[in-house]
Amino acid sequence: xxxxxxxxxxxxxxxxxxxxxxxxxxxxxxxxxxxxxxxxxxxxxxxxxxxxxxxxxxxxxxxxxxxxxxxxxxxxxxxxxxxxxxxxxxxxxxxxxxxxxxxxxxxxxxxxxxxxxxxxxxxxxxxxxxxxxxxxxxxxxxxxxxxxxxxxxxxxxxxxxxxxxxxxxxxxxxxxxxxxxxxxxxxxxxxxxxxxxxxxxxxxxxxxxxxxxxxxxxxxxxxxxxxxxxxxxxxxxxxxxxxxxxxxxxxxxxxxxxxxxxxxxxxxxxxxx
Amino acid sequence: xxxxxxxxxxxxxxxxxxxxxxxxxxxxxxxxxxxxxxxxxxxxxxxxxxxxxxxxxxxxxxxxxxxxxxxxxxxxxxxxxxxxxxxxxxxxxxxxxxxxxxxxxxxxxxxxxxxxxxxxxxxxxxxxxxxxxxxxxxxxxxxxxxxxxxxxxxxxxxxxxxxxxxxxxxxxxxxxxxxxxxxxxxxxxxxxxxxxxxxxxxxxxxxxxxxxxxxxxxxxxxxxxxxxxxxxxxxxxxxxxxxxxxxxxxxxxxxxxxxxxxxxxxxxxxxxxxxxxxxxxxxxxxxxxxxxxxxxxxxxxxxxxxxxxxxxxxxxxxxxxxxxxxxxxxxxxxxxxxxxxxxxxxxxxxxxxxxxxxxxxxxxxxxxxxxxxxxxxxxxxxxxxxxxxxxxxxxxxxxxxxxxxxxxxxxxxxxxxxxxxxxxxxxxxxxxxxxxx
Amino acid sequence: xxxxxxxxxxxxxxxxxxxxxxxxxxxxxxxxxxxxxxxxxxxxxxxxxxxxxxxxxxxxxxxxxxxxxxxxxxxxxxxxxxxxxxxxxxxxxxxxxxxxxxxxxxxxxxxxxxxxxxxxxxxxxxxxxxxxxxxxxxxxxxxxxxxxxxxxxxxxxxxxxxxxxxxxxxxxxxxxxxxxxxxxxxxxxxxxxxxxxxxxxxxxxxxxxxxxxxxxxxxxxxxxxxxxxxxxxxxxxxxxxxxxxxxxxxxxxxxxxxxxxxxxxxxxxxxxxxxxxxxxxxxxxxxxxxx
Lengths: 273, 437, 291
Fold this sequence. Notes:
Chain A has 14 helices and no strands. Chain A is an all-alpha fold. Chain A has a single domain (58-270), classed as Orthogonal Bundle (MetI-like fold), CATH 1.10.3720. The longest helix of chain A has 32 residues, at 65-96. Chain A is flat, with a radius of gyration of 23 Å. Chain A starts with a helix and ends in a 9-residue tail after the last helix. By secondary structure, chain B is α/β, with parallel strands linked by helices. Chain B contains 20 helices and eleven strands. In chain B, the strands form two sheets. In chain B, strands 1, 2, 3, 6, 7, 8, 9, 10 and 11 form a nine-stranded mixed β-sheet that branches. Chain B has a two-stranded antiparallel sheet with strand order 4-5. Chain B is globular, with a radius of gyration of 24 Å. Chain C is mainly alpha-helical. In chain C, 74% of the residues lie in helices and 0% in strands. Chain C has helices spanning 2-37, 54-61, 63-94, 101-113, 116-126, 133-138, 155-180, 184-192, 197-226, 229-234, 246-255, 260-288. The longest helix of chain C has 36 residues, at 2-37. Chain C is globular. At the A-C interface, α1, α3, α4, α5 and α7 of A face α1, α3, α4, α5 and α7 of C. Chain C: Residues 69-281 form the ABC transmembrane type-1 domain. Chain C: It comes from Paenibacillus methanolicus.
């Protein structure tokens, strides 16, 4: 009885927090089905008094949404895959291999991660321009896949995996690449899932880099589309939110897909206690 | 390892700095020479390869079709020049423009969103000085040449005016009729305006109609001083104090929504006016075009009127702040002649007639005026647009971007009630002396 | 021991190569350039002129810079503390295998993926001085509830609230991944020793979570020092300069005033502060991080 009570209390708390956290989403969803003049009615109308699904049609015809969608999906997938590859390799080296200059190099990574993007934006742009990469997806790919944050994150996870496991594999005659691919990576599923979620949602929502590097409509991504909706429809938040809701689905899907590895990933005892 | 690292970084760095930014001076000189050569070549050999110039502008539905029409008309006259449009959305346009123009750039010409941006880039020589070319264009630019003086920085012209907007007072005739109040006069002081706004404010909460709605921009209060012929760079800022006090009285008395409320709801004058929630709106002369569009879309359900913007006591009626959308040629363009040809075409009579179909043109030529007037379905008096006496909305001199930031920050604090208007003006004077270059 | 390095060094460089090559060209090089620009008066176009320490001297007397510096420190310290507490709490809450738990996890992570425009609009409405839900409620108790975003005294608090809301779910994901790695037996053993829930949290969970906590504290502080978007869309540094943080000021100097050199100098000061804080933490890593 007591357990049931505390269980339901727990659910009440979790639901309450969930409501607070998803408030903007609920508002976005509800606004996206409203008429323009009802958007800022106070107190907030959570269920639209007049239902206006035509907002979605208006948005999807106003900008080349399918193209933007495809570009976003393509970039998010390529960058996430690339970041996972380069960052887990480098993270592994920093965490588990001994080599001269390791700490200093890692420090350089950390320091560069601390510099605000707004500061290196211009020098980065000049480099990309000299390489002829402006107005191409390559600029965004190269900008993101070498993320120092990704390296840092992977290193922190790799470092916490028990050394005995690698030693055992080494005794079994496994090479370093084998240890990495067959022993460590499978254990690092939660870290990989985490980086996937972070990276995907970052690329999906990133506005500044695509803004700077992409000029042609055929290359633009969803956040740029949302921004042009924002300019186009001035303060017509019902339409802007219809665009925003349309853009969210893939990120939510990736989250659901990746987060299940948090549970199945680590086998008991793999982490040093 | 460390040495190798430092060395590699040094090489990359020097290379990029040199090719990206440091080399500008030479490049500029070289391309200046090229422009002359290109010109010579193009007159000498008519059958040469067409040149493509890149033109950057911000876009929304209206301006997109406008620029498309302009390009089509221009290319019909100039088969040897193609115009490629590079567009960006309005909110982030300045940022995109700044980055694109850092170091050298392959964009040949571009639009400025406001004169502050124009000043910012013209004052560092990022755009080409156009005096000689404008003079050389002869009659072609007669329609817009009256604006040249307002665009000169230290006596030099760096851009061509494309659109020209002043301020006007717009009102909802139905609300005035319902309240039994006469329509606003074309010759009204700001004091009379505030009194009128109070008179027309009715109701509470959801059903409230406001007497006045102005955007939150600082021009809505510093315009008072501009109309008196002063500038924010003047030693004595007293003339601006009255403007700020009146602007604050509007919100304090409840005749106009407060800045805090507007920020919280992202309020914009257009939907507020369309919803019949305000009797008067004070904004730029681009507004009639929007209203006409709204009428076509069936969103406008009442009659509206337009008259001259109110003015301080003792200032002639029809005195209004005025500002222009300017186009300039990039200093690193390799096709400066062609870029200027394009700009002078769209600022010339034929181009401006096309512009007039969409937005308020800069040209005063008769044909352009008629084209603009023909957009409006019934006899709305266009005098406030064509007959106003312009005073500059911004004074183009060193420190303009910094000063505008200071004025906005301190003015907002006064409007939010954190400091008094007196304190705000004193603070502007104080910060101005410290922060301006 | 020393000889044991070298067999691994080759492999290590091989592993590092793809990342380091790109990192040097696209991240480290621009960063070094930004640092160098801090000693110039570059305006974004004209040839670069070295001005030595002039920019730094000007920073000493620049009031906007001082205000932004204080704002940055306040914002970072308070937000970081609250974000970490909130995210650990959320992680503990959803670290179970009840039905529908993934929905809750997604819900808590949601603020991180919501677009900034939506976040700004909804929170501005929530903080509405007269008709917003918060003040509607507070009016039951007081006649003059705070003006939130429209008040210099409360704007920072409002921003911190939104920051915690937006970032807690993000770090929850990290803590959750960490919690999943703590072996169940340790809790069982602690239970047998008679440790209660609270004691188990302090003695088992927190120490074993310390590598993740270390990561979170460092990244959280760095991210907060770098925050820009939220402030840009919510307050634009206002009212007045009440929420102007360093990155916002840097952005303004570069993009509104063309002072790229000066902005870089400001950035270097920011970097020096973050560096110092991180260094202190790194020093302390051995003391409280349990590998």
